[in-house]
Specification:
Layout: E1 5-13, E2 18-28, E3 34-44, H1 46-59, E4 67-72, H2 75-82, H3 85-91, H4 100-110, E5 114-119, H5 127-140, H6 149-152
Helix pairs in contact: 1-4
């Protein structure tokens, strides 16, 4: 599969839980066109931000049926999808699984495209991954951070 879209993502949490953020870069294959997205949250976890970065990136795509390569340094996200774990969790209605709210949201947008995942080692001088990290960390340090409702207000952090 030759991707039409490269989706680079990273998530960050200063403390786990703590203030966190995500960084996303969408890059249209063989062009100079790209878009950066980021957002910070006042209390969340690193895994939530890693997963939310992928979700937000996929949700930003304006057409369905695109071939997307997600490049992430999150083993949690990449292995959960590539090894099929999330599909087993879905069959069991995410019973006892953390971040079920985000995984359900992910599956909805994931199924709109042809998505592959590629894991890369974080903090290994990959320029786009490093830029995503900067976006995520900077977002986590802003004032007026959003509430991660799925974490703070629904009690899902107790799972």
């Amino acid at each position: 599969m030759d991707p039409e879209i490269f989706l680079y993502t990273d998530g960050s949490s200063r403390g786990n839980p703590g203030p966190g953020g995500y960084g996303v870069i969408l890059h249209l294959n063989n062009t100079r066109h790209y878009k950066e997205l980021s957002q910070g949250y006042r209390k969340t976890t690193n895994n939530r931000m890693e997963l939310l970065a992928v979700i937000v990136g996929l949700e930003a795509l304006t057409r369905d049926g695109l071939r997307v390569l997600v490049v992430s340094d999150s083993k949690y996200v990449v292995d959960s999808v590539a090894k099929g774990w999330v599909f087993g969790w879905e069959k069991k209605q995410f019973s006892g699984k953390k971040n079920a709210d985000l995984w359900k949201r992910f599956l909805k947008v994931y199924r709109r495209h042809e998505v592959r995942f590629q894991w890369i080692k974080g903090h290994n001088n990959h320029p786009i991954n490093e830029r995503c990290d900067v976006l995520a960390v900077e977002a986590s340090k802003k004032t007026g951070l959003l509430v991660d409702v799925g974490y703070e207000e629904t009690g899902l952090n107790l799972c």
